[in-house]
Design a protein that fits this description.
The complex is a heterodimer of chains A (609) and B (304). With 609 residues, chain A is mainly alpha-helical. Helices cover 70% and strands 3% of the residues of chain A. In chain A, helix 13 packs parallel to helix 18 and helix 14 runs antiparallel to helix 18. In chain B, helix 2 packs antiparallel against helix 10. Classes of the chains: A mainly alpha (609), B mainly alpha (304). At the A-B interface, helix 16, helix 17, helix 18, strand 7 and helix 21 of A face helix 1, strand 1, helix 3, helix 4 and helix 5 of B.
Amino acid sequence: MANLELIILIVLVLGVFAFLGGKLNKIIGTAFTILGSGFEFVSIAYYGFNSALDSTIEFIPYLSFMPTALGVFFGIILTFVFFMVSFFNPYFIDKYKYPAVYSMLYLFSLAGVIGVFFTDNFMTLFFFFELVVWTSLFLIPMGRSRKAASIYYGFSTFGSFALLFAILVMWGANGGSFDIETGLTALNGSETILVFMLMMVAGFAKLGAFPLHIWLPKVLTKSPDPVTAVFSGGLEKLGAFVSVMALLKLSPVGINIGVLDMQLTHYVIAFLGALTIVFGTLMAIRQDDAKKLLAYSSMSNGGYILVALALMSTTSVSGALYHVLAHALASTAAFLAIGAVARQTGTTKMSELGGMIHKMPVTYLVYLIAIISMAGIPPMGGFISKWLIFQAVIDKGLIFISMAAFFGSIGSFLYVFRPLAALFLGQELPEFKKTIKEAPLLMMIPLLVLSALNIFTGIYPTDILRLINKVLAELGIAQLTIDTWTITGNNGDLFPALIAGMFGIGVGVAFVIFIVLKKSKKVGLMDTYTAGNFIYTEELLHYSVDFYAPLERLYAKHTDIMKNFYKKLANKVKEFGAFVKYFFFTNKPEVTVIWIMIVIAFLLWGDVL
Amino acid sequence: MISILNVLLGLGVALFGFVLQTSVGGINRKVVARLQKRRGPKWYQEFLDIFKLLSKRAISHGWVFDFGVIMALGGIIATAMFMPVTNNIIAFEGYDNFFIFVYLIAVGMLGMAMSASGSGNPLASIGVMRALTTMLAYEIPFMLIVLTIIKLSGTSSVSGIAAFQQMSNHNWFAIALPLGFIVSVLSLMGMLGKKPFETYIAPAEIASGPMVEYGGKQLGMLFIMHEITIFIEVSLFVHLFLGGAENIAIFLVKYFLVYTVVNLISNVNGRFKIDQVVTFFYKWPLFLAVVQVIIAVYLGWVIL
């Protein structure tokens, strides 16, 4: 048995050690992050799989834990993401202003994540939720962007207050108890709808879903590369966790849309999820910064999770949970691969890069596998989850939502291919010919492990689906039918290993054809067909700027709608502030006194009534 | 259970698809030639082209250039192995899920796109960009129609959908869903890269797009891949809309008719610009597809 309290305490203590060690030497601090997150992952995964997590409290008062299958599932994924990313810390620590603080906060936010997933008390949940927000808030400006941090703070606070409000409403309904299980069931009538909406606001804000998505691309672009990977693969998934709570555990019963056989509340969430998919896809297609592109792709994938959770069927929820895993693995791998390129070249702009494959072939392969999974192409993990989600969407026959899902899925081919073509392939630009080397060995470890897992989740999903089945049982949803090798959906079976095997055979046949034929003569990249022109500079033969220009042109006018909306909103808030200031906080004390008198009179009058 | 015989049958289907499409393509060159008052080449001319290319010594632009070609052909062979030909000739019964064809075919496409971009020629990258954009345009209406078909037949297995249409009281989906049929013919033309949607090949404009740098065995392998891709797309259409095939003769007739009709339509058309392709598909085909889904799924007006 492993004590959860002890697990959290150990990581907090290691965080303090990381700070003290980091003061002596930056690298020692980061070594503590690897050690700490590795320890957390091993203990959560090992004891979680064997359901041997112990929840007794000895040291910290007011805390209470209760390991659930859902918490274990999320906990394993997130600690794993933290563990994998921590291998990158030693190579990026030089760029930060406060390296010791970075190492400490990295472990503190991990502690917060574990706390959120394993508690059975709303106040503890809120405390750990805020711990994550506050620690990550200070991790972001390590990349020297205060603006990104303040935008993140704004949206996170909005989500946090919504969550706190929801918790207090439940506290009132539940007779002054913060217990999660009874709290979610104690509500009735309009209170349920209110709490549902508030919790979904918190989930949307954390997941970066439309319309609360503005912070996501900003933060993921501006924060340091390891933090970006943690956000996209890990912290964003907290939103999915809160959404599971609201959509499946709370699940208000309101107006039922007869023709769709769906709750209005759930349809609205699914619709917003669909908008998130479309919006994220369209924005990702037109980005020049590879990190920003992947940030929008995270947003779009978050939309899939929301849509699938809102449908509430066996295939859709298992698809959503599998997508949480598949996307965490794929996007962490992709962000880390881009991070490795950024470390070697100093930029992530696709228009400035080209031909990195010749110097960084392993990073290229890692990125390739990651995007195949992200685009939902077999034989990688992303295909399983997309297949499950499509099964559910088609089974329900939801036109607009399935349209968005198909659009996002085909659109993802477009945007994931862009960094591949512009950054890794194409002409090898002269400034990178001599100086660039493959990423160092320690950075290779997470990249290779993540790639192996991307493939493994696509070939043999059974064990993971069994764990998901446990979660489904806990949520009161019928279990997914799985065999050792096959998955049964609503309208067909899937045999992932067969697909992968046949792909292997196909490639084998193609390889034999290739190898028995005459050997090719190797020529340089500049030795290409140029329609009779003489071109000697690589830049002129490299197509990377405005890759999808003809498509972008079709919607370029409408890309700033949400940004403008928030700008206008901010202006209105400012105006309101000025108005309040003008009336209530003038230089004349007598005006203020009068207002105070009026307010007091009003309050007393209310009391009499 | 899957045995080595299934795998061999699958490889046989892929080989059959290659031979079939290359012959049908050759015959179609003659058909088109007659349309333009020419005599046209021999029907086996395409075989000669491919085998000549395979025997020649080629150039290579680095390892990803070769690796992409292998991945492309491998992915397409793998997809073809799942394709049912008739009711009885099917390699992996029960696992011929529609989504496998949509997504496994994408591995092949990705391999080819990767290899083309790896050649370092900007025209190839432009061609890939256009191909992907075209895909974004035609897939959405097509997927909506397939959604309707899966919803009506209750299965996403391609042979299961064909069997559903062969039942005595059921019509082909081409008749049951007339609007959807129109949409899917247009989408099929986009898939096959036929005019007016052949923007990503555009020989006179971007020098055959993705193909620009290839020669010798790489080009020969990509030709094989292209023929098998067409086989997959056209037979998918035959199974989804034209009731599949009870025996091989019916399959051959249906296959030949579909490919020839599409080819004839394409030969009297010009070429769209790439943004016109997108706006075209997102206007009428998408509208018709949505109307078709609403009247078929929600109102239940299906001509059965």
